[in-house]
Amino acid sequence: MPLPSKSPNLSSIKNIRCRYVPSINWVIMGYYIEMLPAGSEEWTLSTTTKTCEGTAEGLTAGQEYQFRVSAFNDKGKSDTRVLAAPVTAKDLTIEPSFVLAFNTFSVQHGEDLKIEIPVRGRPAPKVVWTKDGQAIKETTRLNVSRTASSTILAIKEATRADSGKYKITATNSIGEKVAEIGVIILDKPGPVTGPIKIEEVSSNYVNLAWEPPAYTGGCQINNYIVEKRDTTTVAWQIQAVSYKVTKLLPGNEYIFRVTAVNKFGIGE
To answer: Quick one: which of 135, 139, 113 has its CA closest to 126?
Structure first.
């Protein structure tokens, strides 16, 4: 039969590790892990393992235990080695945390977006998603779900309204963790920020000024299209892709509009 294993050590409340160095050539088939609850005189087999690490299951929180390990082969069982000190079983507690590979996610308008964020913590944290300070209202198009190890935001047929900053809050009895992610919906730009201002006017041209769109479509604005319409007509004419509109007729009254352009098309 094998010689006894070296003294076991505790790697966690559940895991017990041991080392064994055989002095003869018998093959070790495995190890027995036994436990003795405080107040009891009877050792019971907790688990059998083929490696030098095992998990003792079925412990009672708050109960004190002693553990011992023995090796065995086809010739029998070795003497036991006892863990140096008794162990009190208690739940492992871990503060909540997120594993963020990215903090910005993008998808083209009309496509589906799924964001899965791994969540850690023990006890299992409660996770809440908010947008613009308000809890997310789940619909058939937008919903939040949870697996044993992650939280998932799923958006079907994403629209411009889905873009923005989202906050994720994970809470358990140990603490709280907050993370922020950005969602960008790639689309044609929104309207320029007005009002459109007239900076200079003469008999045959006018200089206009405006601010970029609040929503750029998730990418750079390439240029702007300036259109004019004589108040006596209903047809708009593309005048320029700059702020200076020329070839105006003295005495005529005009209306102007400006549209932003990006790689996804002409905006509002």
So the answer is: 135
Cis peptide bond N-terminal to 212, omega within 30: no
Domain range enclosing 80:
9-88
Task: Choose among 198, 220, 195, 215: nearest CA to 207.
Answer: 198
Rounded CA-CA distance 231/228 in Å is 9
Residues 6+ apart with CB under 8 A from 51: 31
In whole angstroms, what is the distance from residue 187 CA to residue 10 CA? Answer: 57
**Given a cut of 80, is residue 10 above it in pLDDT?**
no
Which of 50, 66, 88 is at the close of a domain?
88
Which of 92, 99, 112, 104 is closest to 150 using CA atoms? 99
The lowest-confidence range among 28-37, 97-106, 157-166, 219-228 is 219-228
Residue 164: CB atoms within 10 A of its CB come to 12
- Quick one: pLDDT at residue 13? 54
pLDDT digits (tens, 9 = 90+) for 155-194: 999 988 898 999 999 999 989 999 999 998 888 888 888 7
Question: What are the residues whose beta carbons fall under 8 Å from the beta carbon of 235, sequence distance 6 or more?
Answer: 229
Within a domain: 132: yes
Same domain, 128 and 102: yes
Per-residue confidence at 57, pLDDT binned at 50, 70, 90? Answer: confident
Residue 40 CB contacts under 8 Å (≥ 6 apart), including other chains: none
Total number of domains in the chain: 3
